Structures are given as structure tokens and as C-alpha cells.
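Message: I would value a second opinion on how I read folds in C-alpha cell form. Give me a protein, with the fold worked out from its sequence. Write it directly below this note and I will take it from there.
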Amino acid sequence: MMQKPVGALLLTLAATPIAASDFQLQWPLDCSLGETCHIQQYVDHGPGPRVQDYQCNPLTYNGHKGTDFVIPFLREVAAGVAIKAAAPGEVLATRNEMPDTYATEENAESLKGRECGNGAVLRHADGWETQYCHMKQGSVRVQKGDQVKAGTQLGEVGLSGKTQFPHLHLSLRHHGEVVDPFAPQGVESCPSSVESEAAHVPGPTLWADPLPYQPGGFLGSGFNTAVPDFRAIKSGDAALSRLSPTAQGLVFWAYAYGGRRADRIRLSITGPTGLFSVHEITLERNQAQFFRASGKRLRNKTWPQGTYQGMAVLMRGDEEIDRITQEILIY
């Protein structure tokens, strides 16, 4: 059984800025940031009920004590995405037996005190610790007392513990207090409201190679004959490779993260005869993960055969945050 440090993450954010340190973190996943994985949530710096990440944006939630590196689809979890030690150190504790399953009201009681799921805690020099949560059942490769180097595989991304999506939750602590590796010296000031888009220049980072900040974006997209179920999208089973000319519907969907109230999602489809459909949807609330879909039902005997391209654009005010395209053949 894993020791207490891999529990509910009830520690507080460091009350005082961390002084300059030689301690650095390496990239902890076998994936490409912005392509096959994304950072969905950061450490919460907001006072009280306000939520603010280190860039003064709401890409976090109240009391969040780590960084969430998200793998878009469960099929990639099945294939195996390696989690690596971010720094050299000693393994303090591990857990490896919890199942990969979505957290629900029904299993909430069994997750108490084990919210981290399967994972590992590493002790580093000068009072630093890293904690790796939500690993795949049976994937943990290290044991208590092992000495590891930066880059040593610890396990694989999973869906264990209290989570609704496959990801690595990485926590960093210094003498027991949570530290944001993106802003170890804290955030000096933020606008009084997260709706304000005041420019914010972050200070030093603990990442050996500084990581770019993306304030939301797309995780994936695809075509289907109808609006798919969200679980089918998250599993990776909602995108069809081709459609029959007699398919009863032609629907393009886009899966995204970091949505904010009043963001606009513009979905368009272009076919062999030109523009097929355009639909713009406004988000009514902030959403950590979401999808939107648009398309048409078959009105004639068949669809025109050929290549169809779907495009989704995420707009925040007048700024384009991200876009994604996908093609499908109808024949």
C-alpha cells in the first residue's frame, strides 16, 4: 500500500516565495506537448474562492495543487504512455493496485484518502519532493527505496483515483509545501477578475526547458453519422475513417479543453461541392473539457462522393485560441 503522501493532496501552497534554486524539472511524459498531450490545469494561485493559474487565467480549479498533463483519448492509455521521473531521487512510496475507472458518486467512498490513485512519491535533494498520480493499474515500475535518475520510467498514464480523464497529476513540494514549478516565486499580482485580460509576465521557472503556455485548445476532432456520446469521444472511438454515401447523417465534432464563458466555437464542413455547413456556438460557462458538434441529416438519396474537411476554431473575443481540421472520405 502507498504511504500517506499519495493521498488527497491536502497541503497548502507555499506561503513564501521559493528562493533561487539549482533544482530543475525535466519533461515527465513520453508525449509531445501541444500535439499528443496538453496541460489542462495548473496550480491554483487565487485567494479564497477565486481561481487563477500562474498566468492569471482560470486554467485551474479551486485548491488545485499540481499540474495536469492530459492524454486526449483512452485508446492511448491502452497503448501505453510512459511517465518519467522529472528529477533524480529516491522512491518514498508507490501504489499500483487501483483499477482504471472514472470517478463517480458510486465509488466516491472507496476513493477517500486514495484520490491520487496509483502513483509514486520521489524525494530529491534539498527538501524537494515530486508526486505522480493516476497511473495505469499494474504499470508502476519502481519500489520504495529505489534510486532513480531523471528520465527513469516510473509507470504509465492511467485513469486511477479521483479523475474524469486520463492524465498525469504532477505535484511539486519543498519542505512539505506545494510549489508551482511554473511560478516558484509566486504570482505578484493579478487582475481583480479573471475576466480581465491584463498582460502578465511570469517570473523564473523550475523547468529545465521552459514550457509554452496554451490557454485552452483542441484535443481532437472527427466525423460521425450522428452526434456521438461524450464517453465515445473520450475513449477515442467516435471518429469514423470513412462514410457510406447513404449514411443518414454527416456530423463533425471537436473535443476541447479550457473553455471559458462566452468563448465561441466555429464548426464548418467543406465538401466536394464547396461549403457544406457552418455553425457557431457560444459557451455558456467555463468548462475543463467539452465537445461540440454540427452537421446535417441526409435529405437526398446519397451524399456527393469525395473528400470532406471539417474545421473547428476556438475564439476568445477577437483572438483565435486554436484551430483543428479533419478529413473524411465518402465513397
